[in-house]
Write a structure and sequence with these properties.
The complex is a heterodimer.
Chain A: E1 3-6, H1 18-28, E2 39-43, E3 49-53, H2 62-66, E4 72-74, E5 80-82, H3 92-96, E6 103-105, E7 110-112, H4 119-123, E8 130-133
Chain B: E1 7-13, E2 18-24, H1 33-44, E3 58-62, E4 75-80, E5 87-92, H2 96-103, E6 107-111, E7 118-123, E8 126-131, H3 140-150, E9 157-161, H4 164-167, E10 175-177, E11 181-183, H5 188-194, E12 197-203, H6 213-229, H7 234-237, H8 244-250, H9 272-278, E13 280-284, E14 294-304, E15 308-316, H10 318-323, H11 333-346, H12 350-365, H13 371-374, H14 383-395, H15 399-404, H16 408-415, E16 423-424, E17 427-428, H17 436-444, H18 450-453, H19 455-461, H20 467-487, H21 499-507, H22 515-535, H23 561-580, H24 584-625
Helix pairs in contact in B: 1-20, 1-22, 11-14, 17-19, 17-20, 17-23, 20-22, 20-23
The chains are: A alpha+beta, B alpha+beta.
Chain lengths: 137, 626
């Protein structure tokens, strides 16, 4: 079965941002954490809790529904995959995601879509992120 | 700067609210971090002016490998220290280094003084000088909160700020970085205060493409693995630096009761184990560090009768537990947290604040000062008195606190008690009275800090005292750490980043370094720092250590002053030799620059001659006609 990324144990997070670094390296060949499909941030400053904003692998994705050009296709196991050659850069997917987990790559004017590759989970030093079997939600 | 052959410097002039960007290829031999900061300080410093004069610069710099490799998390700040009146150098983690990288600045140089309190917000594509008048007088954390709510960019933003102590120019005022980390030592907070600079924020969202992902990621993974699967850094995450307190006490090395003794009868009650058991609620990391050594301790404070409680939480570490614990005879972890919180909010270096209060307590015992000076009773173990004294110190409440706010060296020159004012060349002692390498190491260290050459670790690693061997080790660490501070490393990763690892890492992101280069770089940086110190009027030979350092036992027994002096002489000789070593890289660079200047001058001369000839010709023709 296909797996998807789950940020279910963010209570363990130390805020090292390694996940963001790894995602940018692996998927965008870039050092900038703005290129990452996962964003860790604090609610209420450094003294608040860490939260991960990342695609939650919807079965019925609003982003895909909002896409006028068919650039987002359903991914087995949940979520969507981006076909960049079909994307016109309209930002509708970004606005449709109520988790605010669609980010934008200004360099190419296309969305940053998590493909649930699991690289961030592999490098998370505290196992806050994990890859889980679809259907185990 | 990654992928480039120059360093990019942001110069901020607070007098005019204008900035200038420099791209400096000639800074490349200095690697980054403390290297480029030292060079920039040397270029912009004013030895003839007071440390708090508006013209004095503050320099922040990040390392050659900041953020792109694990645990390269530190930003260095350099300035003239108002505490020692010479080299000011301090390091902080948090998010600052990563945000400077994302904003595209290897270094930020700040000069001048704002006409009114400001907080400066820096982005890769903007800068703003914001009104901070309302923040003046407000504690460190509320200032951070207010700025956080006012500015966008959470998660990829760094906020650094001073508390009242910085505004009032207490000579050891600190700068808080992202709530949990600090530029603690040597008074950067006072320098910011002298510039009316209450806070600074940095945000960046620059794209930084990787050139050779395969090679880079291979090296990244090797380092990441060492950080997370070996025991090289395990202790820093587990119970943290706090764990060392008990064994230092057992081995006669824990400064206690103003260094009257080095073993503490209440060590078990304030140990790292006790903090972990009673107070530890959370661990966090600096951005880019998978280890996470920041330990947050919390205690429940009853602020009123009728079950009125609040939760006080602070980051704690060994140095704070010694300075605001054993040094002042504090017996519980809760009380130490309360004292850390007060130092944190007022914005002072915990070590200097604790050591100064230790001196003041003993000065009261000896009748050199009394309660008309201190305003509250100062007694070892009396937390309530110390809490008030910290507030008074930060505000410069009366003449005594203003004098104490200039450091223990200065205060003891006024009131007496110099024999038990525990400082090294004006910088209050760190929490290690371990032996000859710590005493000599701190005295000769370029900023008189324990992390300059790690003398305290050398003491703990040797059984026999061999002066020449100890001095060689201290000297090697002193210049080698200059190099590693050039890559932006946290010292806790010292074992991870051996020379081979540093070479592989930097060469995978575009450098071309050899083992020999690393040694050259370290010495080049140390030479720059020693030149700066000399210009500030510092003389190693003039350093005198307070008597008590030779009275209170260490793990190597009571220190013999003759041996200490012998070691200092050996070190000075080594440093002098190094100052005379040639630097082929800089010589080649200077020759190239001269050739380029000469070429420009030659072109100018030729052009001028051509023009003169052209102008002269018609005149000659005219004369001929006449």
């Amino acid at each position: 079965m296909a797996k998807y990324l789950s940020a279910s144990e963010m209570n363990k997070c130390i805020g090292c941002f390694t996940c963001m670094n790894i995602c940018s390296i692996v998927n965008k060949q870039n050092h900038s954490n703005t290129k990452s499909a996962i964003k860790v941030r604090t609610r209420g400053g450094m003294t608040g809790r860490f939260v991960a904003i990342v695609c939650i692998a919807c079965d019925d994705p609003a982003c895909m529904e909002a896409c006028p050009s068919g650039a987002l296709v359903k991914r087995e196991g949940g979520g969507v995959l981006l076909k960049p050659e079909l994307c016109i850069g309209c930002h509708r997917c970004e606005k449709a995601c109520i988790m605010q987990a669609v980010f934008w790559d200004d360099d190419i004017n296309k969305p940053i879509i998590c493909r649930h590759c699991g690289s961030c989970a592999k490098f998370c030093p505290h196992k806050c992120l994990e890859m889980v079997e679809a259907g185990e939600k | 700067m990654i992928n480039e052959t120059f360093m990019r410097i942001l110069n901020i002039d607070l007098n005019t609210s204008k900035i200038r960007i420099d791209q400096r290829a000639d800074l490349m031999p200095y690697l980054g971090g403390v290297g480029i900061a030292s060079k920039l300080l040397e270029e912009t410093m004013h030895p003839e002016l007071d440390a708090l004069h508006p013209d004095q610069p503050i320099i922040f710099a990040i390392g050659a490998g900041t953020w792109v490799f694990p645990v390269l998390t530190k930003t260095v700040a350099m300035f003239r220290s108002p505490l020692t009146n010479e080299l000011g150098e301090s390091y902080a983690g948090g998010r600052l280094a990563m945000t400077m990288l994302m904003a595209g600045y290897d270094a930020i140089v700040i000069t001048g003084k704002a006409s009114k309190p400001v907080f400066v917000s820096i982005k890769n594509n903007d800068i703003a000088f914001n009104d901070a008048r309302a923040f003046w007088g407000i504690d460190s954390e509320p200032t951070g909160q207010a700025i956080r709510e006012r500015l966008e960019g959470g998660g990829k933003r760094s906020i650094i700020r001073i508390g009242p102590a910085g505004e009032n120019q207490v000579a050891f005022a600190s700068v808080c970085v992202d709530s949990f980390r600090h530029f603690g030592r040597l008074g950067l907070g006072a320098v910011m205060g002298s510039k009316n600079l209450k806070a600074m924020t940095v945000t960046g969202d620059r794209s930084i493409p990787i050139h050779d992902t395969k090679n880079y990621f291979k090296v990244y993974q090797q380092i990441y693995k060492k950080c997370t699967t070996t025991d090289m850094m395990q202790k820093y995450h587990d119970a943290g630096t706090a764990i060392g307190l008990r064994s230092l006490s057992v081995s006669n090395s824990l400064p206690t009761y103003n260094l009257k003794t080095t073993t503490y009868e209440h060590a078990d009650d304030i140990s790292g184990e006790e903090f972990a058991r009673k107070n530890l609620v959370r661990k966090v990391a600096c951005t880019g560090c998978p280890v996470g050594c920041i330990h947050i301790g919390m205690y429940r404070r009853e602020f009123d009768k009728g079950h009125e409680y609040e939760a006080i939480s602070v980051p704690y570490d060994y140095e704070l537990m010694f300075a605001l614990g054993s040094y002042l005879g504090i017996k519980t972890t809760d009380e130490i947290i309360a004292l850390i919180d007060e130092v944190e909010e007022t914005g002072m270096d915990a070590i200097s604040a604790g050591v100064c209060l230790g001196w003041a307590t003993e000065a009261v015992e000896n009748g050199l000062i009394d309660e008309s000076d201190t305003l509250v009773p100062l007694k070892f173990g009396d937390t309530e008195g110390y809490l008030k004294a910290i507030r008074y110190l930060s505000k410069g409440k009366n003449k005594f606190y203003r004098n104490l706010g200039k450091g223990s060296k200065y205060a003891s020159s006024i009131y007496g008690g110099a024999d038990f004012a525990m400082h090294y060349a004006g910088n209050e002692t760190p929490g290690y009275h371990t032996g000859y390498a710590s005493a000599v190491g701190f005295a000769v260290a370029s900023r008189h800090s324990h992390l300059d050459n790690g003398g305290y670790q050398i003491d703990q690693s040797v059984k026999e005292v061999n002066p020449e061997d100890l001095v060689s080790k201290i000297f090697f660490e002193e210049h080698d750490r200059c190099m590693v501070n050039g890559i932006g490393m946290c010292m806790f990763a010292r074992k991870i980043y051996d020379h081979q690892t540093i070479i592989e890492a930097l060469n995978s992101i575009g450098w071309n370094l050899t083992e020999q280069d690393l040694e050259q770089i370290g010495k080049r940086i140390l030479r720059t720092k020693l030149r700066i110190k000399a210009k500030y009027g510092f003389s190693q030979k003039a350093v005198r250590l307070p008597k008590r350092f030779f009275e209170t036992p260490t793990m190597h027994g009571v220190l013999d002053e003759t041996i200490v002096n012998q070691m200092m002489k050996l070190y000075i000789a080594k440093a002098n030799d190094m100052m005379c070593e040639p630097d082929p890289v800089l010589e080649t660079l200077a020759a190239e620059q001269k050739a380029a200047t000469d070429k420009v001058a030659a072109v100018k001369t030729a052009t001028k001659a051509g023009v003169e000839k052209a102008v002269a010709k018609p005149a000659t023709e005219k004369a001929a006609q006449g």
